[in-house]
Amino acid sequence: MNLTKKKNSLNKIKNILITGGAGFVGHNLALQFEKKKFVKKIVCLDNFQRNGSLNNKKILLKKKKIKLIKFDCSKKFKNLSKYKFDLILHCASDPSVNTDNNYKMFQSNLMSTINLLEFASEQKKKPIIVLFSSSRVYSINNLKKIKYKKNKSRLKILNYNKIDGLTKFGINEKFSATQIKSFYGSSKFSSEQIFCEYSKKFSLPHIINRYGIITGPRQLSTPSQGIFHFWLRSHIEGNNLCYTGFGGRGIQVRDAIDIEDVFKLLIKQLNKINNCQNKVFNIGGGLKNTFSLRELTSMCNKITGKHVKIKSVLKTHSFDVPFYVSDCTRFEKNFGKIKLKSISTMLKDIYLSLKS
């Protein structure tokens, strides 16, 4: 697809396919694109097996531009060519780092990618494809080699510029992704490699975005897939919490980005497609939107006016990382500075959604 004219880039996107379209990320993107005048049709594929997808389904069915299809993306794509998609957002994924069914996770994450790319490669007019990848592609062992100082509320890095891909802004795209990570991280990295192979052979324009924690209203309240929701809900309902690993102090650090900002940054990419075609980008909250669990607890205390009991578990799981913050320098060089919702604003929005 030739999108050389900036002012016409988005206007050429008429029909959109979203895999995992009833999931947290997928359905939010569908709702945002549905508001855009240049979009005519959005097809969302989902197997509705994940908690929350049926509630999202009810919301999507009310939108005239959105067609929702029950479909298992690990199977071969059928009866979709008639839509002539201009853009495909590949959000379908089993996002569990800690899972007891690795076979199912690999089948879901890898086969959905292969089937999607097979479908796209068969189209006469090649669509732009965006892979929603993960920061989990980066090596856990290398992340654990970073030296830290333990402050009262968080870890602070000591050895900037001594590890490839580690900068004063966080982890950039040059950080090691070839060593042991996790089964989930391996499935996402493998999907990235498969994307590149198909792109080379079939001239498929694509973008690979590696996201950190994505949050926002209507997300699951679990420790692994909705930490803000889980922490806030626990405070609201008075449920006990736990600081697990790294001394049991809750000082490990992550960044977070709101789903509305994910959409805004995606629009920036699509509007300058020639700046990002067939490239990889780290996208996340960055240094300004970082938190530790201990700091998250303090913010939840302030918002809810409640305190909960928190126990400590010293043992660190093999898949846990002490630090991950997205260095978004490559994105900003291509698309300009980015202004994001603050952690406090994200938490307040989620709190209001939970209370309503």
In a few lines, what is going on in this structure?
This protein is 35% helix and 20% strand. The chain has 356 residues and is an alpha/beta fold. It starts with 14 loop residues before the first strand and ends with a helix.
Give an overview in words:
Helices cover 35% and strands 20% of the residues. The strands form 5 sheets. It has a 7-stranded parallel sheet, sandwiched between helices. Strands 11, 13, 15 and 17 form a 4-stranded mixed sheet that branches. Helix 3 (102-121) runs parallel beside helix 5 (183-202). It is α/β, with parallel strands linked by helices and 356 residues long. Residues 1-6 have low confidence and may be disordered. The longest helix is centred in the first third of the chain and has 20 residues, at 102-121.
Show the helix and strand layout.
Layout: E1 15-19, H1 24-34, E2 41-46, H2 53-60, E3 66-70, E4 87-90, H3 102-121, E5 128-134, H4 140-144, E6 148-150, E7 155-157, E8 166-167, E9 170-171, H5 183-202, E10 206-211, E11 213-215, H6 227-237, E12 241-244, E13 253-258, H7 259-271, H8 273-276, E14 279-283, E15 290-292, H9 293-304, E16 310-313, E17 323-324, H10 329-335, H11 343-355
Parallel strand pairs: 1-2, 1-4, 2-3, 4-5, 5-10, 10-14, 11-13, 12-16, 13-17
Antiparallel strand pairs: 6-7, 8-9, 13-15
Helix pairs in contact: 1-2, 3-5, 6-9, 6-11, 9-11
